[in-house]
Design goal:
222 residues; alpha/beta; 6-stranded mixed beta sheet; 6 helices; globular
């Protein structure tokens, strides 16, 4: 007789101590106004986390992508990563460093946190109340943006040029990378593609002109 069918494999277990929590990841450079935003954001993170111990807030890390420490290292939990590799210019678009910053964090630091999920954030985000863990091993949670619309007729030709997977436009989510709550394992699959695509789209005259300051968000969406 043939062997009985095996039940589907369960999702990987949560890391010990990380149950029901997510780790906040803030990407930032060392510009003065970004430091000011980062300090306020971290202050409210601590305040809201303390007032809502049953929320999903876990640890916090600022990913400083200036390539060198700054004067907030002792105030905000921080890791320092490099700027874009030699040969890749940001052309004055500092956001282009964000995907590469996450890539370095995944390569060097992801295994040092206990949470299985992360919340990708930016310095101008302000937490006002506790947030539950909304992501699952197979599904992320994100905020939709009205200006990220891959089905807009004027954007379809550009999107399809970079849609190398030939994914149906109906399944594209109108999101950028932030705020996004996602499992670390899923992020490992997304970030290398996001970094590569963000650089390509920034250097593409048509895409750069169409998407401007949110071209990196469009790269994450695609």
């Amino acid at each position: 007789f043939p062997p009985p069918p095996q039940p589907p494999s369960p999702p990987p277990p949560l890391k010990k101590g990380g149950n029901g929590k997510f780790h906040v990841l803030l990407t930032a450079n060392d510009a003065q106004y970004v430091k000011w935003q980062s300090r306020i954001m971290y202050h409210y993170y601590k305040k809201v986390k303390a007032a809502n111990p049953d929320s999903g807030f876990g640890g916090f890390t600022r990913i400083l992508h200036s390539g060198h420490p700054d004067n907030l290292m002792d105030e905000i939990p921080t890791v320092v990563v490099d700027t874009l590799p030699p040969g890749i210019s940001d052309d004055g678009y500092v956001v282009l460093h964000r995907p590469y910053a996450f890539k370095q964090w995944l390569d060097k630091y992801a295994d040092t946190i206990e949470e299985e999920y992360v919340l990708m954030s930016e310095p101008d985000h302000l937490y006002l109340r506790g947030i539950p863990l909304l992501a699952t091993p197979l599904k992320a949670a994100a905020f939709p943006f009205f200006y990220i619309n891959p089905k807009d007729p004027k954007y379809i030709p550009i999107v399809q040029r970079f849609n190398t997977a030939n994914a149906p436009l109906d399944i594209f989510a109108p999101i950028g990378n932030s705020p996004v709550m996602i499992s670390v394992e899923s992020l490992k699959k997304v970030v290398p593609l996001w970094h590569e695509l963000a650089v390509k789209m920034k250097k593409d005259p048509e895409a750069n002109k169409a998407f401007g300051w949110v071209v990196e968000m469009w790269a994450y969406c695609i």
